[in-house]
């Protein structure tokens, strides 16, 4: 029974510790707002700056995993390069050891004078009282966040004390002492450190528990060192999990965190235990205390980073070798590399470069739409995640191209060049919206899969016909834009008009199916969402085609052009429309 109570009390202490650390970290991030992220991005021009920055930020937010996850997000979005991230991650490894020193405060004891003032009970009580006053009675948000920090700190200290109190009786237990001595086998100690930290998902929590166990007087240096080595590797678990769904650079960044600790563990294991085999260090049997655990953790981490800093470029090459470049990624980077600022002084060249980059954007938007259409037939979470990931890339295209083209408008250009830039700026948002609709369709597919919704056979046939028409209008538009082919662009509007008619007809038919009970309302919402997105895709394709045709005629009034086309349809337009009407003819209702 005593054993169960010890375990329950220990786990409750771990829970309080983790909650306090989380509350304190969240409060610190709220007080800083987005400044921490901005600082991480701006101050990484050299590895040493990144190292110092990573150390400072992690010491503040008390989590190397949180810092690294933030950096993975930056690299994944393209705001930061992998080489910039390495220094920050190394600094995060050092910064996380600060928590151990903070926890040493919880072991200050004494009955009078300064010792009593610095005792855990006194510090925790004062901090908790100030924190709850800020949290409950002060209206300003910043002070409330400061209150969260103080309450988090107090809870963390109480959790630490709870853990220490839970394990203190064990120092008299011979079985427990024998168990801890088995960890003096370095391999076993490393495995325990890795597994323990992977479960807790916090190196700070693992070090805290090791400090709590050291109070029993049963932890020797020989047992604590391998566990500390394993803790760093285990802490990579949440970082690796955070890289799921990111691009290759995001995965490389997460891998750097693992490799840093893995190299440190292997290197120092070989060096330390080889030297010990020869000279037999006298301190191996030293009984550890919370302070010596914190000291060992800090020294180990700093020594590891000192060894690794000269090899930053080699680490970068290694992760690029382990996670190889994808031809698609190289193609994307090549598109962005086209937008060179030096070309802005030569508008003709800059416009050509922009057109090539926009071609890449258009093709990627089309590919994402095709992924979304395929998802309707064969849903998988991996394919769904891929669509969301590529949508971020399309947004990045819009941001970089929009910025570049706006910079170009500040230079002297001929009327034709001005029209061309204007066309690109108009069509840019339409291609981006195609990507948005791919995401919307993927969400419909997710809903259909999650709720196990199936359309009736007639509805499936109708969607298939409409989808084929939409895929053709997207192909026409993208090919026309990439090849600057006005003849192809002229075929877009007749097909767009037919798609609009088909959508209206399908809505009418589906209402009929809902009324006669062939389909249910749940199916009706998903069907309607799908039609809306397909219709909007065709409209954006029409906008691109109109922009191309209007630029060629030295005019740019989309609404007037469409009005004239729709009211004065020439023979070519009508013939094109009739061909599409025959190609995408719906089945007769009477035959269904």
From TrEMBL:
<keyword id="KW-0472">Membrane</keyword>
<keyword id="KW-0812">Transmembrane</keyword>
<feature type="transmembrane region" description="Helical">
    <location>
        <begin position="256"/>
        <end position="279"/>
    </location>
</feature>
<feature type="domain" description="PhoU">
    <location>
        <begin position="360"/>
        <end position="444"/>
    </location>
</feature>
<feature type="transmembrane region" description="Helical">
    <location>
        <begin position="51"/>
        <end position="75"/>
    </location>
</feature>
<keyword id="KW-0175">Coiled coil</keyword>
<dbReference type="InterPro" id="IPR026022">
    <property type="entry name" value="PhoU_dom"/>
</dbReference>
<keyword id="KW-1133">Transmembrane helix</keyword>
<keyword id="KW-1003">Cell membrane</keyword>
<feature type="domain" description="PhoU">
    <location>
        <begin position="466"/>
        <end position="545"/>
    </location>
</feature>
<feature type="transmembrane region" description="Helical">
    <location>
        <begin position="87"/>
        <end position="108"/>
    </location>
</feature>
<protein>
    <submittedName>
        <fullName>Na/Pi cotransporter family protein</fullName>
    </submittedName>
</protein>
<dbReference type="Pfam" id="PF01895">
    <property type="entry name" value="PhoU"/>
</dbReference>
<feature type="transmembrane region" description="Helical">
    <location>
        <begin position="187"/>
        <end position="210"/>
    </location>
</feature>
<dbReference type="InterPro" id="IPR038078">
    <property type="entry name" value="PhoU-like_sf"/>
</dbReference>
<feature type="transmembrane region" description="Helical">
    <location>
        <begin position="291"/>
        <end position="312"/>
    </location>
</feature>
<dbReference type="InterPro" id="IPR003841">
    <property type="entry name" value="Na/Pi_transpt"/>
</dbReference>
<feature type="coiled-coil region">
    <location>
        <begin position="362"/>
        <end position="407"/>
    </location>
</feature>
<feature type="transmembrane region" description="Helical">
    <location>
        <begin position="146"/>
        <end position="167"/>
    </location>
</feature>
<feature type="transmembrane region" description="Helical">
    <location>
        <begin position="114"/>
        <end position="134"/>
    </location>
</feature>
<feature type="transmembrane region" description="Helical">
    <location>
        <begin position="222"/>
        <end position="244"/>
    </location>
</feature>
<dbReference type="Pfam" id="PF02690">
    <property type="entry name" value="Na_Pi_cotrans"/>
</dbReference>
């Amino acid at each position: 029974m005593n054993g169960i109570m010890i375990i329950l009390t220990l786990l409750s202490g771990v829970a309080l510790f983790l909650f306090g650390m989380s509350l304190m970290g969240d409060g610190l991030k709220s007080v800083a707002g987005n400044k921490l992220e901005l600082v991480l991005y701006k101050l990484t021009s050299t590895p040493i700056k990144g190292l110092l920055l990573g150390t400072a930020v992690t010491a503040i937010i008390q989590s190397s995993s949180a810092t690294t996850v933030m950096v993975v997000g930056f690299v994944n979005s393209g705001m930061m390069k992998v080489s910039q991230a390495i220094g920050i991650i190394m600094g995060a490894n050092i910064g996380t050891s600060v928590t151990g020193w903070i926890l040493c405060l919880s072991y200050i004891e004494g009955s009078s004078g300064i010792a009593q003032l610095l005792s855990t009970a006194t510090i925790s009580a004062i901090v908790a009282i100030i924190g709850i006053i800020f949290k409950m009675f002060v209206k300003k948000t910043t002070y409330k966040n400061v209150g969260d920090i103080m309450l988090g700190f107090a809870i963390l200290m109480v959790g630490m004390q709870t853990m220490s109190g839970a394990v203190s009786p064990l120092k008299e237990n011979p079985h427990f002492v024998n168990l801890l001595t088995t960890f003096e086998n370095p391999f076993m100690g490393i495995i325990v450190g890795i597994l323990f930290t992977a479960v807790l998902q916090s190196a700070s929590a693992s070090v805290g528990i090791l400090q709590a166990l050291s109070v029993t007087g049963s932890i020797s240096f020989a047992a604590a060192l391998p566990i500390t080595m394993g803790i760093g590797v285990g802490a990579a678990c949440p970082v690796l999990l955070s890289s799921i769904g990111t691009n290759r650079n995001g995965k490389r960044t997460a891998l750097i965190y693992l490799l840093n600790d893995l190299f440190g563990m292997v290197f120092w294991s070989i060096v330390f235990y080889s030297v010990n085999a020869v000279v037999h260090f006298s301190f191996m049997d030293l009984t550890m205390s919370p302070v010596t655990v914190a000291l060992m953790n800090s020294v180990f981490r700093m020594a590891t980073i000192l060894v690794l800093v000269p090899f930053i470029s080699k680490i970068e090459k290694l992760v690029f070798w382990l996670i190889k470049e994808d031809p698609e990624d190289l193609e994307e980077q090549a598109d962005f590399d086209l937008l060179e600022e030096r070309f802005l002084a030569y508008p003709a060249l800059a416009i050509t470069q922009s057109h090539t980059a926009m071609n890449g954007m258009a093709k990627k938007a089309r590919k994402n739409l095709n992924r979304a259409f395929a998802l309707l037939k064969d849903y998988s979470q991996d394919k769904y995640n891929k669509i969301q990931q590529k949508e971020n890339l399309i947004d990045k295209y819009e941001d970089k191209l929009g910025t570049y083209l706006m910079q170009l408008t500040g230079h002297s250009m001929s009327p034709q060049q001005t029209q061309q830039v204007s066309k690109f700026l108009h069509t840019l948002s339409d291609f981006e919206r195609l990507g948005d609709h791919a995401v919307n369709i993927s969400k419909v597919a997710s809903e259909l899969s999650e709720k196990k919704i199936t359309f009736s056979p007639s509805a499936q046939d109708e969607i298939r016909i409409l989808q084929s028409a939409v895929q053709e209008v997207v192909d026409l538009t993208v090919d026309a834009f990439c090849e600057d082919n006005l003849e192809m662009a002229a075929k877009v509007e007749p097909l767009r008009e037919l798609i609009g008619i088909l959508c209206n007809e399908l809505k009418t038919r589906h209402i009929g199916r809902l009324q006669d009970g062939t389909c249910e309302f749940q199916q009706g919402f998903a069907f309607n969402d799908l039609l809306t997105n397909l219709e909007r895709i065709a409209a954006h394709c029409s906008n691109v085609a109109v922009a191309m045709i209007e630029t060629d005629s030295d005019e740019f009034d989309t609404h007037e052009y469409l009005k004239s086309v729709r009211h004065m349809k020439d023979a070519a337009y009508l013939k094109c429309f009739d061909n599409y009407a025959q190609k995408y003819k719906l089945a007769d209702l009477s035959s269904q």
